[in-house]
């Protein structure tokens, strides 16, 4: 088979597994459920993945990898894009890449994120993978904040890692809201961040995000 065919088959399996996990949760999903979802034989699926653990690990690694690359690319720009635009762009691309995955009429990705978080409480290997990915994204965000500070776009008396954690928390919270309360366009998060970062405190002369 051609590499293109192999890649398409792998994509088919990952997307089918993601739907199953988002719909029923990790533990309630069997490999038989995945086989039925993707309409492939056991041999065809096990050629790529040894079981559920490897499937969910691959889904998490792929998502974190694409997010990390996007923020690392932004960190190399001088100055980086403003935080509201950057967050909306990266999250928008992440959601758009999975917009075909739908459960009960709603996007499956936010539900899948919640399922992954829950599974990390039981699965140390998955938890380690998530910690590593989170650390990489956090480090990239730290470099982005340093770029803001060097360009005079952000006050310099705040630790970059504190801003990095806050920006990541805002994205994760927005995804959790979508899982619980239904879809919302990324412009909601973008506009909220834009309003907050443009606020002036008691010292109106202090610098803030441009």
Content-based structural category: mainly alpha
CATH architecture of the domain at 52-194: Orthogonal Bundle
The stretches of 5 or more residues where confidence is low (pLDDT under 50) are: 202-210
CATH class of the domain at 52-194: Mainly Alpha
Describe the biggest sheet? 2 strands, antiparallel
- Global outline: elongated
Describe the structure in brief:
By secondary structure, the protein is mainly α. The chain has helices spanning 3-24, 31-38, 42-46, 52-75, 83-96, 108-120, 124-150, 160-181, 186-197, and strands spanning 102-103, 106-107.
Describe this structure in words.
By secondary structure, the protein is an all-alpha fold. The chain has a domain of 143 residues: Tetracycline Repressor, domain 2, CATH 1.10.357. It is built from 9 helices and 2 strands, in the order αααααββαααα. It has a two-stranded antiparallel ribbon. A hairpin with a 2-residue loop joins strand 1 and strand 2. It is elongated and about 60 Å long. It starts with a helix and ends in a 13-residue tail after the last helix.
